[in-house]
UniProtKB/TrEMBL annotation:
Keywords: Ribonucleoprotein, Ribosomal protein, RNA-binding, rRNA-binding. Belongs to the universal ribosomal protein uL4 family. Residues 44-77 are annotated as: Disordered. One of its GO terms (cellular component) is ribosome. Gene3D superfamilies: 3.40.1370.10. It holds the Pfam family Ribosomal_L4. Forms part of the polypeptide exit tunnel. This is Large ribosomal subunit protein uL4. The lineage of its organism: Bacteria, Bacillati, Bacillota, Clostridia, Lachnospirales. Part of the 50S ribosomal subunit. It comes from Blautia ammoniilytica. It comes from the Bacteria.
Length: 206
C-alpha cells in the first residue's frame, strides 16, 4: 500500500496514511479515463440547437421570375439557401448527445484518475478542514499553505463554510466522495482530500 503524508491546515506534516491499493494503486487505464471525460462533457450538452431548412422557412412558394429572358440567374424560390432569409443547408436540429459507458468502466476510470494523482504526488491529504466562518481569504490561506492553488477539495460531508469560502476562488472546486468524477479530478492540478473523505472513498469504491 502507498503511504502519503498527512498535513494540517497550516501545511505542516502531522503523520502518514496508508492508501488502499484497490482504489489508489490500480493499473491506470488511459482509454477508460478518456471515455469517462468524453461521456461527462457530452452529457452536459443540451442539444437544443435548431435552425430552419428551406422546407421550414415561410414564403417562397412561387418562382420569383420566369426561367428565361430576364437576365437574372434562374431561381425557383426566394427561400433557397443563397437568398437572405432563406433556409440553412444541413441545419442543426435538436439531438441527444448522451454517451454511455457501464458502471464498472466508470468506477475503473475514477480509480485510474485517483491513482494518477497519487503517482504524480498531487494527492494532498489533510487531517481536517474546518472553517469557523465563511471567509474566502481563510480558505485561500489554507490552499496556499498546502501549495494547492488549482485544486479539487473533497470533504467527507457537505460543509457549508468550506463550500462557500471556496466558491469565489479561481480554479478551486469542492466535492464530496459521492460527487467526485473523473473530469473534475483530472482537470484540477491538486486533489485535496480530508482523512475522513479518503476513508469514505475507499469504503465506496474498493
Amino acid at each position: 500500500m502507498a503511504n502519503v503524508t498527512v498535513y494540517n491546515m497550516e501545511g505542516k506534516e502531522v503523520g502518514t496514511m496508508e492508501l488502499n491499493d484497490a482504489v489508489f494503486g490500480v493499473e491506470i487505464n488511459e482509454h477508460l479515463v478518456h471515455l469517462a471525460v468524453v461521456r461527462q462533457l457530452a452529457n452536459k450538452r443540451q442539444g437544443t440547437q435548431k435552425a430552419k431548412t428551406r422546407s421550414e422557412v415561410s414564403g417562397g412558394g412561387r418562382k420569383p421570375w420566369r426561367q428565361k429572358g430576364t437576365g437574372h440567374a434562374r431561381q425557383g424560390s426566394i427561400r433557397a439557401a443563397q437568398w437572405t432569409g432563406g433556409g440553412i443547408i444541413f441545419a442543426p436540429t435538436p439531438r441527444d448527445y448522451e454517451v454511455k459507458i457501464n458502471k464498472k468502466e466508470r468506477r475503473a476510470a475514477l480509480k485510474s484518475a485517483l491513482t494518477s494523482k497519487v503517482q504524480d504526488n498531487k494527492l494532498i491529504v489533510v487531517d481536517e478542514l474546518k472553517l469557523d466562518q465563511i471567509k474566502t481569504k481563510e480558505m485561500q490561506k489554507v490552499l496556499t499553505n498546502l501549495k494547492a492553488e488549482k485544486a479539487l477539495v473533497v470533504t467527507a460531508q457537505d460543509d457549508k463554510n468550506v463550500i462557500l469560502s471556496a466558491r469565489n476562488i479561481t480554479d478551486v472546486q469542492t466535492a464530496t466522495p459521492g460527487t467526485i468524477n473523473v473530469y473534475d479530478v483530472m482537470k484540477h492540478g491538486a486533489l485535496v482530500v480530508t482523512k475522513d473523505a479518503v476513508a469514505t472513498i475507499e469504503e465506496v469504491y474498493a
